[in-house]
Amino acid sequence: MKNIVLIGFMGTGKTVVGRRLARRLKREFIDTDAEIEKLMGKTVAQIFARDGVVRFRSEEELLVKKLAKREDLVIATGGGMVLNTENLLLLKENGILVALTASPEIIYDRVRGNKNRPLLMHGDMMEKIRELLQERENAYKAAEITVDTGNSSIVEIVEQITRCLLERNYITY
């Protein structure tokens, strides 16, 4: 079976929804940021600070190439993974892209206290969120399914994704 790949901006719930969705569908869960942290022995924020964004994106690309060859996974991607068109194409080859969305205000409320968000550490956080969302908007539109996570519980979001996957015959249950 194809992978289910969660894409979307930071703070939209990819990791928490992905874990729950994987459990529901009895699939292995992979969080790409966590995998890169394990591989490099540093947090995402440390990688950005010490090695730079280019190195981080390079590690993401290598990981995507490995994951694209596997099946039956639920994958939560880093928010910026979609900036690389090759990553999107590889993930789409053997996966169903599910975009998780939320308003800038909700994202701000979810991420404002988190120091592991290196792209938001400088300047006005709300302004940066709006700017990055606009930059990534078209890439997120590559998803077959889009779910707004703003005002729903994790259980409701997982139900909505599962229902969409079943209705479109992406999975059998």
Can you identify the CATH class?
Alpha Beta
Helical amount: 40-55%
Class of secondary structure makeup: alpha/beta
From the alpha-carbon coordinates, what is the Rg to the nearest angstrom?
Answer: 15 Å
InterPro entries: P-loop_NTPase (IPR027417), Shikimate/glucono_kinase (IPR031322), Shikimate_kinase/TSH1 (IPR000623), Shikimate_kinase_CS (IPR023000)
Subcellular location: Cytoplasm
Function: Catalyzes the specific phosphorylation of the 3-hydroxyl group of shikimic acid using ATP as a cosubstrate.
Pfam families: SKI
How does this structure look, described?
The protein is α/β, with parallel strands linked by helices and 173 residues long. It has one domain (3-167): P-loop containing nucleotide triphosphate hydrolases (Rossmann fold, 3-Layer(aba) Sandwich). Helix content is 52%, strand content 14%. It has eight helices and five strands, in the order βαβαααβαβααβα. The protein has helices at residues 14-25, 32-40, 44-50, 53-67, 85-93, 104-111, 125-140, 154-167; strands at 3-8, 28-31, 73-76, 95-101, 145-148. Strands 2-3-1-4-5 form a five-stranded parallel beta sheet, sandwiched between helices. α1 (14-25) crosses α8 (154-167) and α3 packs across α4 (53-67).
Topology:
Blueprint lengths: L2 E6 L5 H12 L2 E4 H9 L3 H7 L2 H15 L5 E4 L8 H9 L1 E7 L2 H8 L13 H16 L4 E4 L5 H14 L6
Parallel strand pairs: 1-3, 1-4, 2-3, 4-5
Helix pairs in contact: 1-8, 2-4, 3-4, 4-5, 6-7
